[in-house]
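Quick one: structure for this chain?
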Amino acid sequence: MNSDIRPDLAGLLSGAPLAANPGYGAELAWFESALGPGGPATAVIEVGCGTGATAARLTHAGYTVVGVEPSPVLLDIARHEAPDAIFAERDLHDLDGLHPVGSRFAGAVSLFGWQGQPRAQVAGMLSAISQQLKPGGALLMGMLEGDCDLEPRRYLDSLIPFTAYPREQLRVVLSRTGFTSIEISVYEGQAPGSYVYARCRSRA
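Got it. Here's what it folds into:
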């Protein structure tokens, strides 16, 4: 898929803004609670930041946010939506050297935007996230549930490749790539399939 025109998969199949996705607000509230009070010294990485909605919320709460996104078109939107965040045009498994002061991140978010990647790259992305987090660092991951590896799904008027896991398989993938204390939450919405969020901690 051409990364220049990659759709914003945060609203995949539903066509809804990210903030309208079931569970989004509650899960971000958990993530902020896990990080503690916002402050510039608390750095967060968002992998697959799309149009910057989550980066905008987290910078508004006071966190330092680094957003990673392969699409320059989406990054242009994200820079407008979240002007206080730092953005990098990278593949989602290429996360080295992004912390503002060369340390490890306190937390990471990856919500829906990764679902345009093949499963082999998703595993690499999760391993890379684990290596960039402090021990015990929080990860919040979100997906529309499914069991597919780049299966064509309809988005608006186009068919796009779509990757997803059954909820318990997502737990296994997270465990194998360096995460523990995994909690799965499921929300029903109008899109085909359930909205699944994983809350977990880095073992690294």
